[in-house]
Design brief:
CATH architecture of the largest domain: Up-down Bundle
Strand order of the largest sheet: 1-2-3-4
Shape: elongated
Radius of gyration: 39 Å
CATH class of the largest domain: Mainly Alpha
Helix content: 55-70%
CATH topology of the largest domain: Outer membrane efflux proteins (OEP)
Number of strands: 4
CATH superfamily of the largest domain: Outer membrane efflux proteins (OEP)
Order of helices and strands: HHHEEHHHHEEHH
Number of domains: 2
Largest sheet: 4 strands, antiparallel
Structural class: alpha+beta
Strand content: 5-15%
Length: 474
């Protein structure tokens, strides 16, 4: 009889699984091809054959000073610390789901006391009652058999999400390093601009004093005097504005370091921006590039997790088989629970098969399928965004280098013209307006030279970030 019952049960499980498999749509889980990639980047930049420096790009662009700032930010930035803790919590979710694959056991001790009234016993129209106790203890073990791999898929999906979170954290670290480096450049460039504006204001003030002396002697008219006063006041106002920008940069740097937004810093920053080193990168191509970017890898892991979620949604159509039971004791007296004579055991099995749920499972499966398609679309969008980012940065590397060359030439020429123009004014062969205007142009040209150097450094930082290169020494 037992063999016959076991055979019937096995046939029922097999037929139910086949029936459910016919009901559940197939869940495809594959990586969709984006397109073929070019062998080289379109932007015409010559890559060095030797590897990227082992010191990290922060040493190349700012020396030990910049590297220390990035190290402090990585260890003290509250947003990065919060992201780290959330990643730890996400990893525990995979552990929680993985525990469902193992049997679950818990110790139980229960007790009850009841009273029953017996009517009509012993005496006519009399009543009597009795009370009874019941105590049980035991080890309750339950286990859901993962015949279809649904629980394993849930755990693996959580693990993929955790791996995606790890790549997101790495991307956040790189982004933070880039922010610190850029703000560092902003502060140095702003310091140069403030110093230039102060020198400009001092120079215009001296010129104003010279013009006022000439005016008192009748050698200059009221127009010359007003022009000199106007350009001096403009230079002083610009100096104050630039000082505000400098203070704002220092506050932003302190916030990135996880400190109070003060205008004071723990260390004295350098007074000039470094000369850009030659482009020194590992030879790479768009196809190899995909294996380095943490944001692309994170998007890929999320898409893979969505495929596992789709598999889980499909396997929800299959029956669930659960076993539970275990050894224990039962007695009317609590003291007897440890007596071997009162030992008991039991085992139960259950099979549940979804039959009708108002279309919930099918809707969940369609939802998971749509989310999977969306995840792979996000992956393709992430890849394309990364491609255009690198192409634009490489193109800007050439353009900005040429632009700096021209602006530096313009600045030196403007400074020479300003000096000659002022000498001509002193000799009386040049109008005051031209002399002051040429001085203003010279200062503006030098200001642009400072700005373009900062832009080149920002672009180089963006290039290192786009190629997922570490800012710190290895």
């Amino acid at each position: 009889m037992k063999s016959k019952g076991s055979l019937q049960l096995s046939l029922w499980i097999i037929s139910s699984s086949f029936f459910c498999g016919c009901l559940a749509p197939f869940a495809g889980n594959h990586k969709e091809v984006i397109q073929t990639y070019p062998e080289y980047w379109e932007s015409n930049v010559s890559f060095a054959e030797n590897n990227h420096s082992q010191n990290g790009w922060s040493m190349e662009l700012g020396g030990r000073e910049l590297e220390e700032l990035i190290e402090k930010a990585v260890s003290g930035n509250p947003s990065l610390l919060a992201l780290t803790e959330r990643l730890i919590a996400q990893g525990e979710q995979a552990t929680i789901l993985g525990a469902q694959l193992q049997p679950q056991a818990q110790v139980e001790v229960t007790g009850s006391r009841s009273k029953r009234n017996l009517i009509g016993f012993n005496l006519p129209n009399g009543s009597t009652s009795f009370t009874s106790n019941s105590f049980t203890s035991g080890l309750n073990i339950s286990w859901e058999l993962d015949l279809w791999g649904k629980l394993a898929d849930s755990r693996n999906s959580a693990e993929k999400a955790f791996e995606s979170g790890q790549f997101d954290l790495e991307a956040a670290r790189l982004s933070l390093a880039g922010q610190v480096a850029k703000v560092w450049c902003e502060i140095i460039e702003a310091s140069q601009q403030v110093s230039l504006a102060q020198r400009s204001a001092d120079s215009f003030a001296q010129n104003q004093h010279f013009v006022e002396q000439r005016f008192e002697k009748g050698l200059a008219n009221a127009l010359d005097k007003s022009l000199a006063q106007s350009i001096t006041a403009t230079a002083l106002a610009k100096s104050l504005s630039l000082q505000g920008h400098l203070d704002g940069g220092k506050r932003q740097l302190n916030v990135l370091l996880g400190k109070y937004p003060s205008i004071s810093t723990d260390q004295n920053l350098t007074t000039s921006l470094a000369t850009l080193p030659p482009l020194n990168l590992i030879e790479t191509s768009p196809s190899l590039f995909l294996t380095n970017r943490p944001d692309i890898l994170a998007a890929e892991k999320k898409a893979e997790a969505s495929g596992l979620n789709l598999a889980v949604a499909r396997k929800n159509f299959f029956p669930s088989i659960t076993l539970n039971g275990g050894p224990g004791t039962r007695s009317d007296e609590f003291e007897d629970l440890l007596d071997n004579r009162f030992r008991t055991w039991g085992i139960n099995g259950s099979i549940t098969q979804p039959l009708f749920n108002g279309g919930r499972l099918r809707a969940a499966q369609r939802q998971a399928k749509a989310l999977q398609a969306a995840s792979w679309a996000d992956y393709r969008a992430c890849v394309l965004d990364a491609f255009v980012e690198v192409e634009n940065i490489l193109a800007a590397e050439i353009r900005l280098a040429r632009e700096e060359t021209y602006i530096e030439l313009a600045a030196k020429s403007a400074e020479d013209a300003a000096r000659l123009s002022w000498e001509r004014y002193q000799r009386g062969v040049e109008a005051i307006f031209n002399a002051l205007e040429n001085q203003r142009r010279a200062f503006d040209a030098r200001s642009q030279a400072y700005s373009i150097r900062k832009k080149r450094l920002h672009n180089r930082i963006d290039l290192h970030l786009a190629l997922a290169q570490s800012p710190l020494s290895e």
